[in-house]
Amino acid sequence: MLGPVILAASRSDKMRRFVSAAPGTKQVVARFIAGESVDQVVPIIVDAADKGLEVTLDVVGEDITTVEQSHAARDAYLELIDRLKDLGLGTKAEMSVKLSMFGQALEGGHELALSNVRPVVEAAAAIGTTVTLDAEDHTTLDSMFAIHDALREDFPQTGCVIQAYLFRTEADARRLAANGSRVRIVKGAYKEPAAVAYQDKAEIDKAYVRVLRILMEGEGYPMIGSHDPRLISIAQELARRAGRKLDEYEFQMLYGIRGDEHLRLAAEGHRMRVYTAYGTDWYGYFMRRLAEKPANLLFFARSILTKD
Q1: How high is the pLDDT of residue 303?
Q2: 181 phi and psi, to 5 degrees?
């Protein structure tokens, strides 16, 4: 099982330095990271909109250590929103944020993260879009859900993410589905202990379907985060059984993975949103993408041995 090993490496400064310096890294990172700046990612947003796709934008970087860094993260999102406003793309692009990047793990982090994310959510609402709070490791989730609840008092369209591999997720899904939330369901991409999470892939897939059924039968807006053809087919069938119209749920996939499937689903009339990450602090995000699929790791292993 290489996944847990890679996830552990995502927290290693020594491995970060090695991977960043490897000759083939830049080529592989470009597959998953849309660019380093707003200017580089704007053409990708425009191209996606032209193809009938929507995007959710993630300014990568979660391992911050100072309040000043949390403010810089906030400001990076506000800059992004200003550019979306200028381009008239507010309805085609939303934002995904990791609260750790907004200071959640620092002293007084819950209140700091809330104070940093609120102006981002407010600015997003002003241009006709919204923000989704990404789920991180299980120790942060109570804080994330509390911030989600607080934001929804003024901005009910604010979304959140739940992870199928956690034992708690079915209960979280029932609560969120009952109150009409926008919820992205993913399998989960952090190294979690057996005390709180399923470890077997088949069990995780079963949990994903159970949670997805709860969301489809509820009052909220499900966002299906998966590249798995079987789970995508199951999601379509559960939506049909629940009597949902095509605009009452959406699919979400990662930038750089299964691009043909993005276009196929959009052509069938589904809402298809591409999770598009950009920025300079790409290491943690990149390592989780490698951990999710052995083919990604093989691609990287081949490239890292080559020269630019």
Answers
A1: 46
A2: -75, 160
The active-site residue, picked from 118, 182, 184, 213, is 184
The single residue of 16, 58, 134, 288 carrying the catalytic annotation is 134
Residue that is written with structure tokens 């552990």 in the block? 8
Determine the residue type at 196: V
Of the candidates 59, 62, 43, the residue with the CA atom closest to the CA atom of residue 51: 43
For residue 272, give the nearest of 235, 230, 218 by alpha carbon.
Answer: 235
Q: Given the DSSP bridges, would you call strands 250-254 and 272-278 parallel, antiparallel or unpaired? A: parallel
Q: What is the token pair recorded at 174?
A: 């029932």
Q: What is the pLDDT of residues 82-102, one digit of tens each?
A: 999 998 888 889 999 999 999
pLDDT band at 22, cuts 50/70/90? low
**Whether the predicted model's global pTM rises above the 0.90 cut:** no
Is 134 an active-site residue? yes
Compute CA distances 266 → 258, 259, 280, whole Å: 13, 11, 30
Helix (H/G/I), strand (E/B), else coil: 278:
strand
Q: Position 66: which residue type? A: T
Q: Rg of the Cα trace of the chain?
A: 18
CA distance 198 to 115: 34
Collapsing DSSP to helix, strand or coil, 93 comes out as strand
Average pLDDT over all residues of the chain: 88
